[in-house]
Amino acid sequence: xxxxxxxxxxxxxxxxxxxxxxxxxxxxxxxxxxxxxxxxxxxxxxxxxxxxxxxxxxxxxxxxxxxxxxxxxxxxxxxxxxxxxxxxxxxxxxxxxxxxxxxxxxxxxxxxxxxxxxxxxxxxxxxxxxxxxxxxxxxxxxxxxxxxxxxxxxxxxxxxxxxxxxxxxxxxxxxxxxxxxxxxxxxxxxxxxxxxxxxxxxxxxxxxxxxxxxxxxxxxxxxxxxxxxxxxxxxxxxx
Amino acid sequence: xxxxxxxxxxxxxxxxxxxxxxxxxxxxxxxxxxxxxxxxxxxxxxxxxxxxxxxxxxxxxxxxxxxxxxxxxxxxxxxxxxxxxxxxxxxxxxxxxxxxxxxxxxxxxxxxxxxxxxxxxxxxxxxxxxxx
Lengths: 239, 132
What we know:
The complex is a heterodimer of chains A (about 240) and B (about 130).
Chain A: E1 5-6, H1 17-26, H2 37-66, H3 74-77, E2 80-82, E3 85-87, H4 90-114, H5 118-148, H6 162-194, H7 196-199, H8 213-238
Antiparallel strand pairs in A: 2-3
Chain B: E1 32-33, H1 36-58, H2 64-85, H3 93-128
């Protein structure tokens, strides 16, 4: 990326490559040389969250592989009747596009945040929150549809009983993550709008001054939610 | 303690006075600014890849072709999100390995559970007979 501008030190005066890994980790100091603690901690939290979702998908795989009963065909289960014909997985596809779009607006919000463009950052973050709320709404619709069709954690009309428990567990946990993300997006957007990061106003909970980097940390969480959906979409809905 | 560089009309003035951070590398926290176009291009690619993976289902492709296509599109999408949207491509290698290596090791767990699931299925078939 030739156009990339690095404010602060553009190049750390440290070794690169494998030698760099050894130098960064072996020193009796902080290992992540040019990453603030807030960002590093968010990454480590996301890593632990990766293991949580990894375990969910893993147990789903084990349940699906070990059952004698045929697994319900997600392509038919999640089909919607639009204009008289069944379109497979259409709701899930729309949800995927909504979540990807929210990731796009979030990435742009981070960018405008570092340019100290308060208005654009806040508007883009609120747009991200709106798209996230749309996603949760569509998921609620999907749950309602499946529950009225008789899907329960202990059984369903089409096949293996484990389908319901896997579905509710995985999409439920993901939906919770999206909901929490929407709430925090609104909180951070309000701070940006008010100019908290420009005047260094102490946060209501930590009493510490925030920086525009908070927008990027928020963005990391939001992109992670999108990332998890990529895996759920592939393994649960398409497989 | 170096003060942040200010770009042009003070647009990029980032006040990074880490008075509390006594580490020797206190003010080397970096952030990147990329042109908006980069994000729009990645966004467009994510749309294209999602459409492709949806079409795999829409056209009813089955068997190994389906699974490999799903996995390829999934990995490409995940890679784009992590590398560009989460800015991992511009982090130092020490950070990349710390975050990306552990999830890859989950594949060991996957392998173990594949054997376990196969065993469970064989046991169930031996006791209850093949599927109802």
